[in-house]
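Input record (one chain):
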Amino acid sequence: MKNVYFSILALLVLSCNDNQKAVEQSQPKVDTLIKTKIVVDEIYNENGIKIYGDTTIDKKKIYYSSRKFEPYISFNDFKVSVENIKNASLDLKSNELGQEFRTAIRNDYSSEDSHFAGHYSIAYWGCGAPCKMSVIIDRRNGKIYDAPNSEIGYKFKADSRMLIVNPPDSLGFYDDCSYCIPKIYILNEETKKFELREPFTE
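The corresponding structure, as predicted from the sequence alone:
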């Protein structure tokens, strides 16, 4: 009787071992999965264009590209004198955005970092992703005027009427996507409106 038990036990052990081998063979090797790590790196950089892709495969897969922003005009072309004056009382009723976004406008109006075009302040705030709204405030009388919307942000100077919407990075490059394109606006002091300028050609 003992021999029968031992025989059955041996058959069960061998059967389990065969099943384990079959399971192992049907599953992918962990080492194989680890080796397929994607590496994104620069694969092209010429003529003001950068392209980034997967450098681990023979046929490079492009993930995104960057373009060089090279406008023919600059901040220096629209220089104005900076007026160091005490800010007038903020007139929130002078623009319909004044009441709705008064906290953001107040905060930026009191900041020296917002100084723009001699005697103005720029105030801006998020309105979704990606979206930013803005206004300018005349420091002489506290009145609020409309300014361009942006997707990424703004670049401006205290001594220039030029405003860059969606500015490039510190090296002058921007991602080549529909909402990333930089735009240049010039403040018309007489109308208090921003005029779009084509940045690439005269």
